[in-house]
Amino acid sequence: MDKDSTYQLIERYFEGSLNEDELADFQKKLADEPDFASAFQLEKELMDGIENFGNQRLRKELDLIHQEEKNNAAQLSETGKRVPLIPRRYWLAAAVLLGIGVLASLIFDARHPTPQQLYAMYAVHDFDFTEKSGGGDLLSQAEALLKNKKYSAAIPILEKYIKSNPEDGPAKLAEGIAFLETGEYERAFAIFKEIGEVNSFLKNEAVWYTGLAYLKMGDAEKAKAAFSELNKGSKRYGEAVELMGYME
Amino acid sequence: MQHRPDNEILGLLKSGNPAQQERAFRYLYRQYYGLAESIVTKNNGRPEEAKDVFQDALIVLFNNTKKEGFQLTAALKTYLYSICHKLWLMKLRKTKREAPLETRHELLPVEATQLETLITTERKLLITQLLEKLGEDCRRIIELFYFRKTRMAKIKELFNLGSEQAAKNKKSQCMKRLRQMALASEEIRNLRNSAGSLS
Q1: Nearest to A221 by CA among A183, A247, A193
Q2: What is the ipTM of this complex?
């Protein structure tokens, strides 16, 4: 058995794709052939190393999520604190003066997030879609910037990439999100509209982000209208139903 | 935030799709991070120490979901609570055990098994370094296939490869390069010799 075939067999073992007979042969070779056992040992070491590498990468991803969730929570609690219109020291007096009804309405308001708070809760961007385009230096750079929330810096790089790859829908969507995050709503809407018209695969993503853009602008009604255009079978539909539950 | 069924979250983690896995981790963060914080702060810890405990618990959960036949025997919340609790106790015990060692100023005999563990850890680090040198596409394909359990059809889509067979070939080429780098590494060879001399 040549080296390539040996490693192909060992790869299949680690993929779990050997059948019962092949597995029995494999065990026999492992016991009888020192070269095969040594190749197996190397592959096992590589698998352990890959597991270690994967855990490290996952931890980095979790660090990013941790930071983002922390920021979101801080943002929510900061805006939440602004809900009561009466200064703190006058709370007691205000409660006495305005009665329990006013106090109840304050509690009620705090339990209903504003459109911008809903945006912060639901705008979880999946920048893996730049990878779906196959990589490349410009896209890798843009992806790294987007994942680090450096949206303004990512825009010119995405524009340069899209100029030579005008058919790349995921990259265009990423550009739209970057405009949305930097507050350039008109440009974001134009991109989402174009994607919705020409890319059936990304249509629901474009509709979802149109709704999110209206939320970020504080227009709950237009956001609802946009979400209602989502395809019921799409992955975004469930999220939209959940989100609109907060607006009722 | 609406509660999602445990099976839905496990399904996302097992999907092999990194975007869906991220969605699950984000949900778990929002839903259960408070559990870790409560365990840590009620047991002599600071709130910021909960981060590592919770992340370790998520990594344990993720790696367990990849095992064939893995099934939850309790609610996901209870499962995560138990792992966080155990991890924090282990950390407390470790801190307690290691502190006197530092103050005693004496060298304790090191057993062969401890050396083996050190060698294994060192070897894993060296292979991690080789993966870093492998190039972004290869590194990502290997990580997706072996660690994230991403299917070839998805890898084909993510990397714009013509077919599943092309994706499979690419993965095999990447593994071949990694193997060649490992075989050429003097440091890995030295470690193997050290391990051999222990047995």
Answers
A1: A247
A2: 0.84
